[in-house]
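does this look right to u?? nicotinamide-adenine-dinucleotide version
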Amino acid sequence: MVRESLAGDDRPCPVHGRNVLITGGAGFLGSHLADVLHARGAHVFCLDNFLTGQASNLAGLHAQERLTLLRHDIIDGIPDTLPPFAEIYNLACAASPVHYQADPVSTALVNSVGVLNVVRRAERDGARLFHASTSEVYGDPEIHPQPEHYRGNVNPAGPRSCYDEGKRFAETLLTDFARTRGVTLRIARIFNTYGPRMRPDDGRVVSNFIVQALCGTPLTVYGDGKQTRSFCYVDDLICGLTALMASPTEEGPVNLGNPAECSMEELAALILELTGSRSPVVRLPLPADDPQRRRPDISKAERLLGWRPATSLHDGLISTVAYFDRILRDNPLDALRAAE
Ligand code: NAD
Ligand code: UDP
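got this back:
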């Protein structure tokens, strides 16, 4: 098991120089990654168009040296004014279905034109490149759990396609750059990850249910609530991500996630219990192409990285509930709007 704290880790920085770029660095995962790389001594450059990210996610680093945060859309390129990078982490792309479907053309473009811009910059700098892919490349899977060699069951022209086909195309483009042009590449297929710094209006199920429970509004279970996901706590995910980036050999995409599977009705019941909320549960229609089951086969990550998640859903939710409780107290009106 690879384990590290989010700050104060004084082991040598895994980067091969001092400058690292995180696209989407003001987002949920990007900001946690920034904390870890900064604590290891890197100068962290974050490019973000603030579509779903917020500068406040990096508040812990603002007063410190070695953080540069720029508002920038990677579809427009990577600014030439930035210094050469030793490592580039490509996380730019809204991850919540609500947000990535709001402007599907932009979502398709960030995963194609944006990724092309990033990999060209990695090639120019000789930078090692990490790309955040997703369990969505498996679509609505026909085999369970999902190993990396499973090729998926994806609708190329549905409401989720801008994201899942976009991420599939990104894997193709990047893998071809690695194969034919020598770019050093690591791809993680990330399964549903949650934790502090998700936005109250993120729209994904964990933040929705917690905000609704804390505000006393109904928990919105889509469909019959029997569909499953496997939820990974953010600290565990970031450990796996940095271990993958530091791994010596390129072995193709690697699943990162927590294999503990749970249905949406079980998740709702657990969040009601942990918050002590008396919110009712309401049923709403299941969105189109919503995957029925999802669980990562993480044997490849265990073998290559010695990594497996350490945080139970129960413990991860306790930290996440405490986070939302604090920010909702500070912004009660925002909270009520998000809970509706
Ligand atoms: P997030 O929405 O919090 O973060 C995405 C960040 O990218 C935001 O800060 C957003 O403003 C920024 N961004 C979006 N488009 C951009 C653009 N064109 N140029 C610059 N910045 C842009 O989501 P997250 O959960 O932190 O996800 C980060 C990455 O991980 C995404 O690529 C996502 O697809 C991937 N991922 C996340 C999960 C998860 O469960 N959290 C699962 C699978 C994959
Ligand atoms: N979901 C739900 N209520 C909500 C939001 C989502 O029941 O308020 C369901 C959604 O239909 C899906 C699951 O929760 O089956 C996970 O949804 P999320 O958007 O978090 O992630 P993804 O579908 O991308 O895995």
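The longest strand covers residues 128-134. idk if thats expected tbh
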